[in-house]
Amino acid sequence: MTVLVGFSSKYGATEGIAERIARKLREAGQDAVARPAASVDKADKYDAFVIGSSAYMGSWRKEATEFVRRNRELLSGHPVWLFSSGPLGTAGQDAQGRDLLKESEPKQFEEFSESLQPRGMQVFFGALDPNVLGRRDRLVRRIPSGRELLPEGDFRDWAAIDEWSAGIARELRGE
Ligand SMILES: Cc1cc2nc3c(=O)[nH]c(=O)nc-3n(C[C@H](O)[C@H](O)[C@H](O)COP(=O)(O)O)c2cc1C
């Protein structure tokens, strides 16, 4: 199957996740490519879609949201998976003891779950390099507890990403 892994990434962390998912799908025999969502003009040439973005302030970036909105009808007739990259750190729970991945779901998961009926919606840990942040993002990290909530480091969980990709490949094979 021809699979689009469409992504929106501000500093590259989500692009790395998208490339990894596409590679794992190719290794499993699928014809998968990772492309920035904003650059995809002929979405109808794909048979299945894995769409993801990093989350900022609880929301996907607009390129990914707009891609899904623009192609909602097409996507709703094909297998779709959504992912988000966001939470930072190594803790599985937030300060209130809630599941961090669940709490980090972007609002778009709810927006798209009914109309697209995705086969899966998954949050992955992300990465943050303070040296590359733009001015506004640097300022957000300076607010009280900003550094605690947004620690520096690469927390991407490649094992979880690979496992999720393998599950997609199995479903595409109809297993
Ligand atoms: C200013 C700022 C706000 C952020 N807000 C969120 C958020 O609301 N939820 C979340 O899960 N991650 C949040 N993050 C973490 C990013 O989503 C994470 O670093 C992500 O992996 C970056 O991916 P990208 O380089 O592809 O944009 C935030 C990061 C910054 C710098």
TrEMBL record:
Single GO molecular function: menaquinone-dependent protoporphyrinogen oxidase activity
All copies of domain Flavodoxin-like, residue ranges: 3-169
Any single Pfam family the record assigns to this protein: Flavodoxin_5
PROSITE patterns: FLAVODOXIN_LIKE
GO biological process, any: heme biosynthetic process
InterPro entries with a match to the protein in the record: Flavodoxin/NO_synth, Flavodoxin_dom, Flavoprotein-like_sf, Protoporphyrinogen_IX_DH
PANTHER family named among the record's database cross-references: PROTOPORPHYRINOGEN IX DEHYDROGENASE [MENAQUINONE], PROTOPORPHYRINOGEN IX DEHYDROGENASE [QUINONE]
Protein name: Flavodoxin
Native organism: Cryobacterium cryoconiti
